[in-house]
Amino acid sequence: MLPLDGLKLRDLEAGFMSRRHMFSIYNPENRSVYKDFKTLDLSCETQDEVDSWKASFLRAGVYPEKSSEAMANGEGEVSRAAGFLGVFFEGVGEASVH
Q1: Where are the chain's structural domains?
Q2: How confident is the model at residue 78 (pLDDT cuts 50, 70, 90)?
Q3: What CATH code is assigned to 8-97?
Q4: What mean pLDDT comes out for the span 32-55?
Q5: Which of 6, 17, 36, 42 has the maximum number of C-beta atoms within 10 A of its C-beta?
Q6: pLDDT for the residue numbered 16
Q7: Which has the closest alpha carbon to 94: 19, 34, 54, 43?
Q8: Residue 65 burial (CB < 10 Å; 0-12/13-18/19+)?
Q9: CA-to-CA distance for 95 and 21, rounded, in angstroms?
Q10: Looking at residues 21-30, what average pLDDT do you find?
Q11: Are strands 63-64 and 96-97 parallel, antiparallel or unpaired?
């Protein structure tokens, strides 16, 4: 089981020819997320699957990172996945670990 306390989400840029949508889970205190890994990079086939995973993580208390501009203003960035908080998902797509 993966403890989720203090973890954050961030979007990752896909590679040049990659069709997969990627995001990462990390600890802002620079602690390992899993074993000796500082980040856990995940990818999905479609953006809908990514949104579904992010919504699930939001419900579990893993929030998106704040942008540096929003942090300077003292405001948090609202992720588009946050709109899915109240939505029930029939099924969650599989994510692959890289």
Answers
A1: 8-97
A2: very low
A3: 2.30.29.30
A4: 93
A5: 42
A6: 79
A7: 43
A8: middle
A9: 10
A10: 94
A11: unpaired
Average pLDDT over the chain reads 76
Instruction: Compute φ and ψ for 53, nearest 5 degrees.
Output: -65, -45
Query: What is the per-residue pLDDT for 18?
Result: 83
Residues of the chain above pLDDT 90, percent = 52
Torsion-angle region of 89 (φ positive above 0: left; ψ -120 to 50: alpha; else: beta): beta
* Residue among 11, 38, 39 nearest 25 (CA): 39
87: Cβ contacts below 8 Å, ≥ 6 apart: 55
Angstrom CA distances, 87 to 14, 72, 98, stand at 27, 31, 28
Q: Which residue has the tokens 């896909």?
A: 14
Largest CA distance in the chain: 38
Q: What Cα–Cα distance (Å) separates residue 47 from each residue in 10, 37, 81?
A: 14, 25, 11
**Distance separating alpha carbons of residues 65 and 4, to the nearest angstrom:** 14
